[in-house]
């Protein structure tokens, strides 16, 4: 094996659903030659994982893989995950570059009602135009 992986399955893993598709999880893959530079992050969530990549002795990148709730969850649950992403950014951005990647289960347009709701009804702006 030339690669290593860090993965978590969704704790609500269900093989079948009303849509006929199972749920999944999140995973990050890297070449084993980078093992001495990659460290998993202690994120206690089954929809978020992350690794730290050391670029030089004092320079880091943080990769956060996300699988955010889809539209059959409430907007409050989705908003909670946006808050978690913000908290992760606050925690790790002081030490290096933070990259979020994965399935955000969101559509962003300038005239989206959800976008306007988030911007008007919350103390901070989650999505910027």
Description:
- With 129 residues, this protein is of the alpha+beta class.
- 21% of the residues lie in helices and 33% in strands.
- It has a single domain (3-121), classed as Endonuclease/exonuclease/phosphatase (Deoxyribonuclease I, Chain A).
- The strands form two sheets. It has a four-stranded mixed beta sheet, with helices on one face. The protein has a two-stranded antiparallel ribbon with strand order 1-2.
- Mean pLDDT across every amino acid position: 79
CATH architecture: 4-Layer Sandwich
Q: Care to count the β-strands?
A: 6
Quaternary? single chain
Percent range of helical residues: 10-25%
Protein name: Endonuclease/exonuclease/phosphatase domain-containing protein
InterPro entries: Endo/exonu/phosph_ase_sf
Organism: Mya arenaria
Q: What is shown here, in short?
A:
This protein is of the alpha+beta class.
For the structure shown, list the relevant keywords.
129 residues; 2 helices; two-stranded antiparallel sheet; alpha+beta; four-stranded mixed β-sheet; 6 strands; 33% strand; 21% helix; Deoxyribonuclease I, Chain A; globular; single chain; disordered C terminus
């Amino acid at each position: 094996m030339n690669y290593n992986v860090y993965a978590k399955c969704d704790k609500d893993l269900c093989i079948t659903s009303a849509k006929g598709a199972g749920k999944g999880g999140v995973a990050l893959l890297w070449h084993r030659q980078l093992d001495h530079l990659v460290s998993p992050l202690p994120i206690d969530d089954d929809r978020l994982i992350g690794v730290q990549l050391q670029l030089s002795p004092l320079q880091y990148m943080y990769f956060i893989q996300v699988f955010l709730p889809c539209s059959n969850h409430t907007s409050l649950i989705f908003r909670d995950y946006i808050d978690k992403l913000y908290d992760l950014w606050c925690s790790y951005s002081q030490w290096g570059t933070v990259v979020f990647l994965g399935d955000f289960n969101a559509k962003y347009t300038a005239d989206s009602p959800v976008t306007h709701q988030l911007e008007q009804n919350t103390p901070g702006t989650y999505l910027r135009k």
